[in-house]
Amino acid sequence: MTGFGASDYKDDNITIKIEIKTLNSKHSDVKFKLSHNLQEKEMLLRNLVRDELKRGKIDVSIAIDLVGVDDSYQLNTALLERYFEKLKDIQDRHSGFQGDFVQAVLRIPSVIEEREIVLEENHFPLLEKTLRDALDRLIEFRKTEGASIDKDFRLRVERILELLKRIEPLEKIRKDQLRERFTEALRDFGQKMQVDKNRFEQELLYYLEKLDITEEKVRLQQHCLYFLELLKEEKMEKGKKLNFMVQELGREINTLGSKANFSEIQKIVVDMKNELEKIKEQIANVV
């Protein structure tokens, strides 16, 4: 689920700023942007983030400054002089070798180095607390978004249930029309040859049973109600269950449409599919 959380800490000795951004993903992918001196703590911090957020594409940025350390970068003077002397020597030996050596040398890696901030042991609890604060704020952000998604899910599923109720009065019309079509076909066919009417009735009943959509309606209703029940679960991870139920809803709606063989019911099925597509668009946002 998308989210954002930030927190900072400051006292007379240290300043800590942390930002966490998350995007939708089926798996857990945690990336850190932190200074070299925190590498030894990265696994601890990574596990903390993964345990709290479960899954998603997660970017964590940690910036630390110590009070009294004014410059974040320092010039490696000895290295700069060595490069400069070599380039000057080449210029003296080759008249065609010209250029702004100072600018060229400054672009070479390690000439300008990031000043390493040495953290004391008592700084790490402060770092962990600040990270947890940022995680708490991100989770609150997710909860707010989740409440909006929950409302949208309920609206879509309840709409499907309403559409399902509209099918009921159409079924008798559908069966009567099917029977009329077969009877008319029988009259046309009977003018050319003798037809066993009892056998015709048997075949007609068999065909109508094949087109019966009662089971699909019952299962679709049950799946909708179960989907709404899943939304009430307090467990954080329920995205997989909801995703599975969306597939089941789609299966029943598709079968309903293919067996209906009646334009008015198929129009309702199209509306159901439209609502289901809107649910699918949001389902990836659920943890």
Please give a handful of descriptors for the protein shown.
alpha+beta, four-stranded mixed beta sheet, two-stranded antiparallel sheet, 6 strands, 62% helix, 287 residues, single chain
In N-to-C order, the SSE pattern is: EEEHEEHHEHHHHH
Q: DSSP helix count? A: 8
Share of helix among residues?
A: 55-70%
Main beta-sheet annotation:
4 strands, mixed
In the sheet with the most strands, the strands line up as: 1-2-4-3
User: What are the segments in which pLDDT stays under 50 over at least 5 consecutive residues?
Assistant: none
Write up this protein.
This protein is α+β, with helices and mostly antiparallel strands. Among the domains are: 73-113, no CATH class; 146-283, no CATH class. It is 62% helix and 14% strand. It has a four-stranded mixed sheet. It has a two-stranded antiparallel sheet with strand order 5-6. Strand 1 and strand 2 (14-23) form a beta hairpin. Helix 6 (214-231) packs antiparallel against helix 7. The protein is elongated.
Helix and strand topology:
Blueprint: E1 3-10, E2 14-23, E3 28-33, H1 42-53, E4 56-66, E5 73-75, H2 77-93, H3 101-106, E6 112-114, H4 123-190, H5 197-210, H6 214-231, H7 239-260, H8 263-283
Parallel strand pairs: 3-4
Antiparallel strand pairs: 1-2, 2-4, 5-6
Structure in a nutshell:
With 287 residues, this protein is of the alpha+beta class.
